[in-house]
Design brief:
- About 25% of the residues are buried.
- Helix 5 runs antiparallel to helix 7.
- This protein has one domain.
- The strands form 6 sheets. The protein has a 4-stranded mixed beta sheet.
- With about 260 residues, the chain is an alpha+beta fold.
- Helix content is about 35%, strand content about 20%.
- Strand 9 and strand 10 form a beta hairpin.
């Protein structure tokens, strides 16, 4: 009897932990389309267009504004495609903001393509400024140090700036074989410049931690992942397509042999 009781608690703990994880995160990453559209019909047409073309385009232009505030999401306009790491059962808040038309990929597939979670920064969090010794908000410190970092890197890369254009292809999600930097660019400060402007700073997502969870600017609730755009795909890359049930027959009519499972939030 003692041996049986000893085996009980670990088994129960494992089951509870597994159930919690299933509610908390997903093995799929989902991108919703048509947030700026005025009707579900327009969102549906956009979804069909994306599926037909096999491409998710990034939302930005890869513009860096060195003197803008990163805390207001103004410093970087990266060409990225965004996904949420939320299970189907927990998507209600997300779809209230972004609509109910989306494409889901297996997380492992997108990780292999370069997808990674963002780094959330609570703007009201306090941090000690190493230069002044005073405590300031993390938002203010982020603005100060991001500008400082770009100033330092730009002063080192000014001579090579006209040669940095090959880096844009990497930022745009192109799979490049061999070195990204040319021989003339193969200097530590140029590599660090690319690392900061392509792999670190554009993945910082500041958010106001005081906002309610349903607020459209509460980005923390999105559990966001990003990948450089555009993202090209074929039907077999998709795990499922999300759209309201009333649109299922129309999608099957317009894309009769697509062969991807349909789901609804």
């Amino acid at each position: 009897m003692a041996a049986v009781l000893a085996l009980g608690p670990p088994l129960r703990t494992t089951v509870l932990r597994s159930a919690t994880v299933k509610r908390y995160e997903s093995d799929q990453l989902t991108h919703f389309v048509g947030r700026g559209k005025s009707s579900d019909k327009e969102r549906f047409d956009l979804l069909v267009k994306i599926l037909s073309e096999g491409e998710l385009r990034g939302s930005g232009k890869n513009v860096v504004s060195p003197n803008a505030k990163i805390s207001k999401r103004e410093m970087f306009d990266p060409n990225i495609v965004c996904f949420c790491d939320i299970p189907l059962s927990g998507l209600t808040i997300h779809t209230e903001k972004y609509g109910s038309f989306g494409l889901a990929f297996q997380k492992a597939h997108l990780v292999n393509k370069g997808a990674t979670p963002v780094f959330y920064v609570a703007l009201g969090s306090r941090v000690r400024d190493v230069e002044t010794g005073t405590w300031i908000t993390r938002g203010d410190y982020l603005d100060k140090m991001a500008v400082r970092a770009l100033d330092l890197l730009d002063s080192d890369t000014r001579k090579e700036k006209q040669e940095i254009h090959p880096l844009n292809a990497a930022i745009n999600g192109e799979r490049i074989e061999g070195p990204i930097l040319t021989a003339r660019q193969d200097a530590p400060h140029v590599s660090v410049h690319h690392f900061m402007v392509a792999e670190i700073l554009p993945f910082i997502v500041p958010f106001d931690e005081r906002l309610p969870i349903h607020h459209k600017d509460n980005y923390y609730m999105e559990r966001e992942w990003r990948i450089g755009g555009p993202l090209r795909f074929v039907a077999s890359d998709l795990a499922q397509i999300l759209l309201p049930k009333r649109f299922h027959p129309e999608l099957e009519k317009r894309l009769p042999n697509y062969g991807v499972p349909l789901a609804s939030v």
